[in-house]
Amino acid sequence: MPGHVIEVKSLYKDYQTAAGKFPVLKDVNLEIDAGDFVAIMGPSGSGKSTFMNILGCLDQPSKGDYMLNDQPVARLQGDKLAKVRNHTIGFVFQGFNLLARSSLLDNVALPLVYAGIDKDERHARARVLLEKVGLANHVNSHPNQISGGQQQRVAIARALVNRPSLILADEPTGNLDSKTSEEIMALFGELNREGITIVLVTHEPDIAEHASRQVRFLDGRIVEDIRTSPIAAQGASHV
Amino acid sequence: MFSAMLGEAWHAMGANRLRTFLTMLGMVIGVGAVVLMMAIGQGAEQAVKKSIQSMGSNLFIVLAGPPNMGGARSATGNAPSLNVKDATAMEDLEGVSNVAPINMGSAQVIYAGNNWNTSIIGTTPSYLDVRSWNLSDGYVFSDSDIRSATRVALIGKTVVQNLFGDDDPVGKTIRIKDSPFIILGVLDNKGQSLDGRDQDDTIIIPLTTSQRRVFGAQFSGSVRQIIVQADSDKVMPMVEDSLNSLLRQRHRIREGMDNDFSVRNLTALANSAAETTKTMSMLLGAIASVSLLVGGIGIMNIMLVSVTERTREIGIRMAIGARERDILMQFLLEAIVISIVGCLIGIGIGVGGALLVSHITQAPIVISSQSILTAFIVAASVGVFFGFYPARKAAQLNPIEALRFQ
């Protein structure tokens, strides 16, 4: 049976400032099942970005537990976190964050470099994913030669290349016009139907509509958790 | 993995060609200067070593006459205080391998219509051993020639050229101070001595012949100098002491009286000359190394700028799974590639420059694989050393802050 991809228990995060300890997350509890599509919402400063950073293993909580795929990752550091990011999480950012000097193929294949996979397989897998996101004809282009929507598709392909259990998207449509936003969200929906777990941060309600579940943050706490539609796919059948 | 990173380093360098070139230039100039200076320095060293070798190794020269005497003083070597028996006695001293008594002067030499003024050395066959001098043709006179004072001679290349031209001199008869001498052999080329004399402009004849028939001797058997060769460098001080005490005893010089001879350590003189050139070549190398250091600092500077500029890129790489050591390696590799490529160009320029210098000034140069290897290793280490700090700075960036960096 499908377990929880994410299980967060009484999570706290404080920042040390000149004025003293500043709590950002206070006792956050959240479980996300495999195959779910969760939108995390909330105003600026509500702690949702900090929460995303912790979910993405870019940051560590001050207190509390975080199980990712039933593995405790809250206390991991440095290279171990890097390994988790590389193998189990795919990131999609607001600003696309592609490497400007590398071709689209190399951009998509980059996580595989750090996974120690050889060149032929890297390129083969990257090619398949570029095709999947509809950019098969742009394999050797560079990021500045394609549109923003296309760049975000490349970023999604890169997030998928290491067959992660979880995709974390931080305001993925923030830099895109509404038509392109719809296209990107349609792509996320499609991936979700294939069984990929997606966690999306946004503050636009119509973007959050695409998700099956909406979690709202306020002042470092979860204040609302609504399921709007059933989990699309059962179990994480990887790409 | 490694090749992918090397490829990325190459890409990163290509992304800003002018900057990469200028960074590299520091390395190029540094390595070029080191290679050039070492080539010139080692060339000078080798030239000095060669003249020292031509002189012979571990030598003392014992001169007749006191090093210091009251009243009118004649040149050392002119007093008749040394004789053949002194030389014979020296042969038995511990640590002495060869002894060659010498009588010398210059004389007019005639063959057919040609004549030439050259230095005549009267000595024993061991002189050739001491000077490690071989014959290119003919053979050396023997001890029996010494006993019977025969008129035979070995002649140097310069004399051959001036008297015989292209003819074969062996077996021919020349006249030295109007006495006929048969040429037994021709001496090998020896080139210039340390003080620039032409060592090939000489004729060697038996000691006794020089005493009786060419220069005469103030007293029977007296010689002007005795060259003594020690077994090794180590026994030189001991041999010097025993030479002094042997001669004081033989010449019956009482305690407190001055010597009527002087013992000079030729090797020490030569070594100090060698030492001087060595010091000079090291000095040249040290000065050149400074530019290598400056080149290294240039690399560090540019790498620091590059890390700051690419903070966001570093953040992306970390987010998708680059470990600290991956980032460290990426920037370190970039620094090393810049240094090594710069080093290779520098070696090319250094070698080219050295060849040009030797072509223009005729100065001897030595381009040793050792000096090139050294320059290469030093350059690579400079890359690692000065690349490490910026690379570590990159690797220790916080991924969240790096991603937020604009």
List the helices and strands and how they pair.
The complex is a heterodimer of chains A (239) and B (406).
Chain A lengths: L3 E14 L2 E14 L3 E5 L6 H8 L7 E6 L2 E2 L5 H11 E4 L11 H11 L4 H14 L15 H13 L5 E5 L7 H16 L3 E5 L3 H4 L4 E6 L2 E7 L12
Parallel strand pairs in A: 3-8, 3-9, 6-7, 7-8
Antiparallel strand pairs in A: 1-2, 1-4, 4-5, 9-10
Helix pairs in contact in A: 3-4, 3-5, 4-5
Chain B lengths: L1 H14 L1 H39 L3 E6 L17 E2 H8 L4 E16 L2 E10 L2 H5 L4 E4 L4 H6 L3 E4 L1 H8 L8 E4 L2 E9 L14 E5 H8 L7 E2 L1 E6 L5 H15 L10 E5 H44 L1 H9 L4 H38 L7 H27 L3 H6 L2
Parallel strand pairs in B: 4-9, 6-8
Antiparallel strand pairs in B: 1-11, 1-12, 2-10, 3-4, 3-7, 3-11, 5-8, 6-9, 7-8
Helix pairs in contact in B: 1-11, 2-9, 2-11, 2-12, 9-11, 9-12, 11-12
How would you characterize this protein structure?
- The complex is a heterodimer of chains A (239) and B (406).
- Chain A is an alpha/beta fold and 239 residues long.
- In chain A, 32% of the residues lie in helices and 28% in strands.
- A 6-stranded mixed beta sheet of chain A has the order 6-7-8-3-9-10, with helices on both faces. A 4-stranded antiparallel beta sheet of chain A has the order 2-1-4-5, covered by helices on one side.
- The longest helix of chain A has 16 residues, at 178-193.
- Chain A is globular and about 50 Å long.
- By secondary structure, chain B is an alpha+beta fold.
- In chain B, the strands form 2 sheets. Chain B has a 6-stranded mixed barrel. In chain B, strands 2-10 form a two-stranded antiparallel sheet.
- The two termini of chain B are 29 Å apart.
- The chains are: A alpha/beta (239), B alpha+beta (406).
- At the A-B interface, helix 2 and helix 3 of A face helix 1, helix 10, helix 11 and helix 13 of B.
